[in-house]
Specification:
Elements (H helix, E strand, L loop, with lengths): L2 H7 L13 H11 L12 E5 L2 H21 L9 H5 L11 E8 L5 H18 L3 E4 L9 H7 L5 E10 L21
Antiparallel strand pairs: 1-2, 2-4, 3-4
Amino acid sequence: MDHSELLTKRRAVRDYEEKEVPLDILMQVINESCLAPSSSNRQPWHFIIINNKDVIKRLSDESKRNLLLDLESNPASPSSNYEAILRDKHFNVFYNAPCLVFIVGPKELLSLQVDCALAACYFMFSACARGLGTCWIGLGRFIKDPEILKLIGMPDDHQIVAPIVIGYPKDIPDVPDRMGPQILNIVS
């Protein structure tokens, strides 16, 4: 797959086959993710792999619970757009994917969000090149329960930046309409 084809074929996949992603393939994807650029070449990203459906469901329920608590105290929260699905007990924020990977890093690092986002992009492109589907699940990062954080091996001084589901897609969504570039100015 050439670069342009990869850019067009990578889609947000939310429907997966009931098939595990082999750990060796997942490790290839993660190794390629680590080729991403980072501020001062710190490479601050770390990965937590969860391929246990019961744990993924528990993480989904925890994230939904925290988002709904936030909505109660802040009705104007951006999460209000998702209130109906967050209240649906059958809705899994991770779309019942067979595998979830958290890209995490040290909380105090100023460039962490950008550094981990770059690694996440590499992760999604690497997965796509192998016929895998991914989706960055913004609703999936609201994990606060110390017991659950301990269960998944989250260091106390780290935070979740990019929760990404990965698996074999049932189908690849069409390319949605895209806006052209919004060039504000050209200074020559």
